[in-house]
Amino acid sequence: MALSIVRTAAALRAALAPWRREGRRIGFVPTMGALHRGHAALVERALASCDRVVVSVFVNPTQFAPNEDFARYPRTEAADAALLERVGAHVLYAPSVEEIYPPGDATRVTVAGLTETMEGAIRPHFFTGVATVCARLFSHVQPEAAFFGEKDYQQLLVVRRMVRDLGFGLEVIAVPTVREPDGLALSSRNAYLSAAERRAAPTLHRVLQTVAAGLRDGAAMAGLRPDAVRTLRDAGFAEPDYLDLRDAETLAPLDRLDAAPARLLVAARLGATRLIDNIAVQRA
Ligand code: PAF
Fold first, then answer.
1. Containing domain of residue 257, as a range?
2. What's 62's domain CATH number?
3. Of 24, 46, 104, 196, which is most buried, counting CB atoms within 10 Å of its CB?
4. Ligand 1 lined by 60 (C-beta under 6 Å)
5. Residue nearest to atom 6 of ligand 1 (CA)
6. How many CB atoms lie within 10 A of CB 180?
7. Is the same domain home to 195 and 155?
């Protein structure tokens, strides 16, 4: 089935109506475009459990602060459509800013608690922008399931909470991070890295693995963090915004592994590019 490209909520509703009437399960993958193998993995996961898959490409202005990269964020619709066609997605929803934020729009969605730390502390506007756009996209698409990468782990938890609190009645399905062979998590922002930065970037994942090994051996974050930060600095990273062990559900800070599932998360700048990564850590 050829990929349909639609640009309005009305056209999307019309495209999905016959499938809804046939009782098809509709999966949704929200993206900001500049699609790569990580997005392809989200679509493949959606195709594995849904009859029809809608992918949105929308560079969402409300999740960027004025000093961030909204203007230079890569916009590659033709290549995105080619990738989606190849992977087998059914609909590409590429709305305008006015379609998502109609003139005079005054409503924002804010999730308390989970958003007040890490990414939310560094980028205070970010999660309200994400929650707001996801709420609007969910109401346009009305999917049975939505698929989010674990690469943006805090975002995944925030969206899951919003879906539960607002009763969207859809499943939020987590998809594991896709990595380059050297461990670097795939991200549209990797395109900003110079050749030298690209060579240094996998240090972020290596540091997570080293800290995770230390935690499994019984060490505490307080003891492991200084060496980890030094390794990042030696590779050319700035002081990390955070390098934290957190409860995998509540994001409560932890110093050591205990019986509950935990997540190790990091964010640091390499030159002008801010990279984030995270891994699950479990007691051995
Ligand atoms: O992860 C992203 O690409 C974005 O934050 C999302 C979920 C598409 C919302 O704009």
1. 188-281
2. 3.40.50.620
3. 46
4. yes
5. 31
6. 14
7. no
**Nearest atom (ligand 1) to Cα of 188:** 3
Q: Of the residues 28, 31, 128, 141, which should be mutated to test ligand 1's pocket, given the most ligand atoms within 8 Å of the CB?
A: 31
Which of 116, 155, 205, 117 minimizes the C-alpha distance to 32?
155
- Tell me whether residue 182 is in a domain: no
pLDDT block averages, 10 residues each, the chain of length 284: 97 98 98 97 98 98 94 96 98 98 98 98 96 98 98 98 98 98 96 97 98 98 98 98 98 96 98 98 88
Q: Is any atom of ligand 1 closer than 6 Å to the C-beta of 129?
A: no
Nearest residue by C-alpha to atom 2 in ligand 1: 31
Q: How far is CA 160 from the centre of its chain?
A: 12
Whether 181 maps to a domain, the answer reads: no
Inter-residue contact 73 to 34 (CB < 8 Å)? yes
Give the tens place of pLDDT for each residue, 121-139.
999 999 999 999 999 999 9
Split into its structural domains, the chain has a count of 2
Q: Tell me: the pLDDT tens digits for 170-223?
A: 999 999 999 999 999 999 999 999 999 999 999 999 999 999 999 999 999 999
70 in the same domain as 170 = yes
Measured from the CB, is residue 187 less than 6 Å from ligand 1?
no
User: How many angstroms separate the CA atoms of 172 and 223, rounded?
Assistant: 36
The answer to whether residue 253 is domain-embedded is yes
The packing angle between helices 153-166 and 126-141, to 10°, is 50
Catalytic residue numbers, as ranges: 39
Does the CB atom of residue 178 touch ligand 1 within 6 A? no
- Per the listing, tokens 């399960």 go with 25
For 247, the token pair is: 């409860």
Take atom 9 of ligand 1 and give the residue whose Cα is closest. Answer: 130
